[in-house]
Amino acid sequence: MNVMNIWLKVLLLSLCVPLAQAADAGGITVGGTRLIYDGGKKEASLSVTNSDTGPYLIQSWIETQNGGAEKAPFIITPPLFRLEAGQKNLLRVIRTGGNLPEDRESLYWINIKSVPSGEKRENVNTLQIAVKTRIKLIFRPAGLKSTPLDVADKLTWSQTGNRLTVNNPTPFYMNFHQINVGKHQLNDATFVAPMGSTSFTVPSGVTGAVTWKIITDYGGVSETYLNKQ
């Protein structure tokens, strides 16, 4: 074995050790993939847990669906706080007003940015990475007593060329886990708004029956639904 090969093996070993340590390290965990705000209640809450060995600075804010300058009719508190190692805190979301529809859901975005504490070490360069988590905030009016699972079979689908259109006659956001056309699974399955429609791209030549699964209120996956038309 020549000197170059030995040097390369030592270098790879030195790189693998910190990578393995990083993989074993903890971090910030948000207690949900979405937050359903019950319009009949004064607030909704979401947990944030620090499973790391050091503190983090947590910053949170709420945006409108399109992320523009318009202010969302919700506040999140505390908007900025320090979360110690091994600790958990609750983020409270409170409605501040807004003329929201009472016959259908409304969608906003919760942003949670976590910044690890900077531990100063002599003659050692460190890299700090801020991680932002973005989850849906869905406001469900008090008058809506059922859930998307109860009416997910009401969606209707039509295909023209390479465009697949879904029509949603229900008052709920339908967040897709999976959409299949025949045996082909689509890559861009997102969601369809209540009382609305949206289209997805289908590869050329792909046709067949449409099946789909939605994501539940708690982040689970529904049964498979089949387009009956």
Automatic annotation (TrEMBL):
Belongs to the periplasmic pilus chaperone family. The keyword Chaperone applies. This is P pilus assembly chaperone PapD. Keywords: Chaperone, Fimbrium biogenesis, Immunoglobulin domain, Periplasm, Signal. Residues 27-144 form the Pili assembly chaperone N-terminal domain. It is found in: Periplasm. It comes from the Bacteria. Its main location: periplasm. Residues 166-222 form the Pili assembly chaperone C-terminal domain. Residues 1-22 form the signal peptide. GO terms for cellular component: outer membrane-bounded periplasmic space. The keyword Methyltransferase does not apply. One of its GO terms (biological process) is cell wall organization.
